[in-house]
Amino acid sequence: MDVLDNITEGRRRTESPPLHYDLNIQPKKNTMLVSHGLPPWYEEDGNRITDAFVVAVAGGSASGKTHVARRIVQSLGSIPAVIILSQDSFYRRHSPEEVELAHQNLMDFDHPDAIDMPLFASCLADLKARKQTNIPVYSFAEHQRLEETKYLYGASVIITEGILALHDPALRQLYDLKVFVQCDSDLMLARRIQRDTKERGRHVDGILDQYLRYVKPSYDNFVRPSASHADIIVPGSNNNVAIDLICTHIRRQLVERATRFRQKMAIPRLHMSTPGDTSPEALRIDVLPSTPQLKGIFTILRCKDTSRQDFVFFVDRLSTLVTEFALQHLPYVPATVITPTETPYHGKTLDARDICGVLILRSGGALTRGVRRVINDIPLGSLLVQSDAKTGEPLLFQVLLPVCVRERHRAENAWVFLLDAQIGTGAAGFMAIRVLLDHGVRQDHIIFVTFLVARGGGVSVIRKAFPDIKIVCAAVDDEMREGWLEGYKGEGNPDGVGRKCWIMQPGMGQIGDRYYL
Fold first, then answer.
1. In a shared domain, residues 79 and 169
2. Which residues, in sequence order, are bridge partners of residue 394?
3. CA end-to-end span of the chain, whole Å?
4. What digits encode the pLDDT tens for the residues 164-181?
5. In this structure, how many other beta carbons lie within 10 angstroms of the beta carbon of residue 344?
6. Which residues, other chains included, contact 512 with Cβ-Cβ below 8 Å and sequence gap of 6+?
7. Lesser CB count within 10 Å: N end or C end of the chain?
8. How does DSSP classify residue 201?
9. What is the largest distance, in Å, between two alpha-carbon atoms of the chain?
């Protein structure tokens, strides 16, 4: 199995949706994620400084809430990541008797008691705080909440929509902007009849009975009064101007919350008042002991004329060595076994239930073969982090994490090998660590495994922000120098031949390109 197959196999094991989705307007109310790359949401100390921006869209049944929410997503365009979170996902779990009533259309789904408001608020609070959450999945065919959940993470903007989105005080405290879609009652009834007959195959008599029995009383008693909490009242039709104003406000808020510090990470000594000692000992970097064999491997890998076949072979050897060296940071407990000679042997056994790897695409993939050779059957996930063509800031495009990380109660005890070919500016590694912490992984359970670390690069910023993680590498290079990456038209380059980047010296070049191309 080659490295690309390993990554694919790791993705199958994660069973986790990517961060990036294309916008697709569907007839069903569905949670959607739209991404054009998530910029940093944290500062140099590693702490979160920006929450996701939360917009609530409420209104009567068939008033046009879902349409307004989706139009906002469309109009936002290049906003990094947008989630539509529907109230319909949070119906309470029903007893067998309630399920039977629901199938007879005798269950009131429009009353506030039908919604699990505490769970709704809890999931929304996690998403707003940039943490992962697992929202329930409700089946309208079975009229029951299913055992499965839907994993969500990485939103810059969250749009919650539902008839009761503005009713609960705990939910209202989480909103940054509250919108109420106001529509004529006759128009809402006409839309409801048209929708239910066409999309749900229902009869008009049943629709009217349900409307008069449940929908209209709920609107009069709970939905319409919640409009008093709205910041903006949007008409249920001909609302393009209102949507444009909402989107302009959201964009302005995101610009004000933006954070940029990659240049400070690249050459921290130029920006830190007290740079401090950057020796491996001071930075607590575990460096693979130097041997003639290791020097020979690096001589081959650093040579620009090395063939791709030899480069891949020796990268795989090096990844095996550095992964074996990193195993010292896993927990072990005493264990006694009986040898084939019937003699007891007192040794050690691994004391960790969940161990996984998360590679930073694509250069982190160069470590996968070695990791698989050392830790058999380890589940692998991945993070796609790329640099913005104009600013050079890291952008998170895709999250595919193992199940033990996606489920927070397991993430707290999981051990994660974070894999990247080198720590230069450290911007991608910094972002990856922050993602793992957002999922509940403990700092001291993160083992950053890499080939090279730049002594004068961003590793000092990573170590200062996350003092408890382990960093294991095969060698430490001394310098980072500014340069231009060809093939990009970036800002600040008078000749327009590339984008500013920071190059590790002596380094190994673009490890991902040399390994895969």
1. yes
2. 387
3. 17
4. 999 999 999 999 999 999
5. 8
6. 362, 363, 365, 366, 421
7. C
8. -
9. 87
